[in-house]
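User: We ran a pulldown and think these components assemble together. Before we commit to crystallization trials, I'd like a predicted model of the whole complex to look at. Sequences follow.
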Amino acid sequence: MAEKISDDFNYVGKPVRKVDSLSLARGEARFTDDYDIQNEVYGVFLYSDIPHGRIREIDTAEALSIDGVIDIFHHGNTPNTLYTSAGQGYPEPSPYDTRLFDSVVRFVGDRVALVVAESEEVAREAAGKIKVNYEELPAVFDYERAEEPDSPRIHADGEFPKIPVAYLPEKNIAAKIDIGFGNIDEGFKEADFIVENTYRMQYASHCATEPHVARAYYDDRGRLTIVTATQVPFHARRIVSMVLGIPISSIRVIKPRIGGGFGGKQEVILEPYVALITVRTGRASRIKLSRKEVFVSSRTRHPMRVRLKTGVKKSGEITALEMDALMNNGAYGSHALTVLSNAGSKVLPLFNKIPSIRFRGETVYTNLPVGGAYRGYGATQGYFAFNQQIDIITRKLGLDIIEYCKKWHIREGETSKIFEALGEGKEGVSQVIKSCKLDECIDRGAAEIGWYEKRGKRRKLDNGWVTGVGMAIGMQGSGIPLIDMGSASIKMNEDGSFNLFIGATDLGTGSDTILAQIAAEVLQVPVDKMIVLSSDTDLTPFDVGAYASSTTYVSGSAVKKCAEKIRKDILEVASQMLGEEVSGLKVKEGTVVSGKTGESVSYSDICTYSLYQGGQHQIQAEASSVMPESPPPFIAQFAEVAVDVETGKVKPLRFVSAVDCGQAINPVLAEGQVEGAVVNGISYALTEEYRFDKKGRMVNPSFGNYKIFTAPDIPEIKTILVESYEETGPFGAKSVGEIAINGPAPAIANAIYDAVGVRLFETPFTPERVFKALKSREE
Amino acid sequence: MKADFIINGRRESLEFDSRATLLEVLRNSGHREVKSGCENGECGVCTVLLDGIPVNSCMVLAASVIGREVTTIRGLTEDDDTGLSPVQEAFAEAGGIQCGFCTPAKVLVTYSLLSRNPQPSDEDIMNALDGNICRCTGYVKILDSVKLAAEKLKASGKESRKERGK
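Assistant: Here's a predicted model for the assembly, 945 residues in total across the polymer chains.
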């Protein structure tokens, strides 16, 4: 099965230009908000300004009387179907706890009403004139206290469809996990010492530059068309259909170019509302969130507290590990179970020789903004704890962390019981690791950062700042095994070009390009012969969408399979034309060549023949892929930081990532995924945070007050793609989209410790927090 | 009100609200190549050149730019409708484009920087890009793109600059 190493490839493994780069560079490519849609009305939300309350009355009379206001929707006049906005496969493992509008509001920023007007300005003005009378209810903001008996219950009086996972709203619990193997108590007894620590990570916004936006209209066939910035067009279609009771056959969802997602658009937020407006008014509709609305009322990274307890022998062997995760989902339970489970499932298999492991987790509701999918998806929070814990253990024992990690990590030919025990809303799937170049990642990354020259040296810079280095390792997955499905169809044109139709969703990642490269490699034609059309539920076959690091591996496998069917058909037609057995023919540079005679026939002639002359048919094929396993990519990441002991300021100086993502289909795009994730991860570790007032109101919902890294802030960044080949993947590929966001926070924390000897258990590492840690060490 | 704007070297007579921002006027008049990310002057995706200098078009009152040269990304290739400017070429080649939403802004900032400072240091480049958020690339390939653009412009020399005017 193995078509091997990149030197043998003509189109895979090459830094091919993105297929949409020309139109993007020219500013011609259309994003959702760029479509010219006539006669459109605008929707603007009114949000709750209290954290928890019951709506006694909504008075819309004055707002409705404003010239240009068409209608106002709220809980009294819209369907009250329960659903989840989580854009996951069906049935979703997230609780159905959301309505279009509810009579209860659960956080400052919850949707109360939607004003529909002829202009956005009028809609905003009218939203300000709606009078809402609330019965205020007590609220809970501290997720570590959400389960206490005197904390108010946030979803306790609802009716919830049965989903096959633990769901205990009477305790504010949105999801619960408890798995394990071995004998945890015995394991701790065997240990020479116990290391137990608690780590915390905070809320964060995805900060895609394009805010959430969706449009809807009836097309000339009377079908409801939704153009939307989504990562999950097929899930969006299904959820809109369910929420509004419209048949799937009446809905078309189109994802045009999209200005970044990072998980934030794996959420079906706006689509049901634009659909509702268009269905009710018959008019085209548009809702675009402001940046403030994106911060407060879309989705966030789930804050998480992770307690990690490890029993360790003097030799360094870990005899038992207990991970206890508590996750804050805010007011609604989007991705409640799966982000939580990924804190364990993506982390715990890494040290697969630990004989006893227990992973317990709970996700709780609070009266704060809503968590959702975010690049890294729980693994970020899990690895923050794990990688610091390893640093602590090895320092305690005086062991070299480089050698320690190399000794204990999972290897090719090995498995972990976690794979089987922990899945996505059900049990997982067991798998044996077939490709793992983590040793090489660690060695090359360490050499690049200058590990042994710098570790423990506490070099002082001219300005008095002290430097240190830290590392973090990790693995992720490549799609959700036996759940995620991608598909493709291809048809051939008589000039030797091909239409490639994929449900897969390019968020700017370049998936349209790498999927075209995979097809081009099979068919041996330049990538510009592949005409890519993706993410249109009327035109392209199904795909779950862009999440779980699935596209290259899962959708890529479907594309490869589909292209192989096309190649077979091409060879059969050529065999008729050349009068030779298929077995003697091969494809080369857009032709079929006879091995015997050297005679060749072009793709153009083959397709023309098949359309007009002999054995007439359209050369076309479709294929689907659902993968029985999820081969993890691996990574080793290294940070060098400088710390100002006077002020607690931390400056990242260098950041190195060495990654095994299997064969990189497009090395430039793969590096781009790593670099983007790294900077997002560094920014999250150092500056990004939601600040709330006493009423649970976010007080910094703007880029001016929520600091994300810009160009001058970044350290020197180096990415190394380590050569690797995953035999189950398309041309040896695994995934690369998420993994690199997990290492920055722990690598920086470990580097800060290396520099100044203080341990930071909570992100972000603001000057205040670092300064406090330095002070408390002095005392 | 109604006034003549000079957009990409062409005079456009546009009807607009006196309170409207340049961003609103541009997008409403079909210049969808100018993107909108925060409408608060904090993300930079709505950048256009005003007399050759980058500005956040969401923070500029349209009425204040009447008669001044406004350049959007489309203005870089106006003479040559199928081509790319060397700066755009460089972004496409060096991996500086992921989602592409901030690309028009980044390209314009680069164009402006290189026209003032043809051989910028890394620091010059990063400082020039300070007001332009990108969440996709981590800025690494953006930096590569700007450096490549500088090389390309140098190689194409005066001729290219003359062709593109200004």
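The mean pLDDT of chain B is 92. That may be worth checking against your pulldown data before setting up trials.

User: Thanks, that helps.
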